[in-house]
Amino acid sequence: MEPFFHGLILALGLILPLGVQNVFIFNQGAIQPTLKKALPATITAAICDTLLILLAVLGVSLIVMQYDWLRLSLIIIGVIFLIYMGFQIWFAKANPQSGAQTMQMSTKKQIVFALSVSLLNPHAILDTIGVIGSSSLVYSGTEKTIFTATCILVSWCWFHGLCLAGRMLKKVDTSGRFLRILNKISAVIIWITALYMVKSIFT
After folding, report:
1. 173-185, pLDDT tens digit by residue?
2. Which of 45, 82, 85, 177 is the most exposed place for a label (fewest CB within 10 A)?
């Protein structure tokens, strides 16, 4: 049971802090017309996390991130996506019929944005590699499989739960006022993350 609890605590510790990925998933749960409409974002984010965890355990991504040109390219592309996504969320249109905040984001756009916030943040990737990857080294065989599967399970449960929480907020906030404020806060957090990534280029 040690690999299970180790993976559970470790994955929760990495995924709980407020970041662009969590903000985006919660936001989609809150502003999409139905929970089903937000599934492309949650499933994509969960699949990306699954991929990163598997790469971390296998050690493949550690080799890839050693190339400075690749790291710089990821940062630049990530910054552009984050700035664009921040404006999309900030200027989300209001729906006067329901009084709620809606964001015209297609399935394709949700997937692209989820991919960008999940895979174009080198710091998040390095955290996954450094923490989950290094922690997995103490296990082998079945224990390593249990540890890895637990980390992946936590990720899937967290993103879908976060989306559901956003949906519940929408039902409580019938006026849409809090959702409008949430959009502004979300956009600011996303822009701050973009600035942090730009700063990392020069440090």
Report:
1. 666 677 777 778 8
2. 177
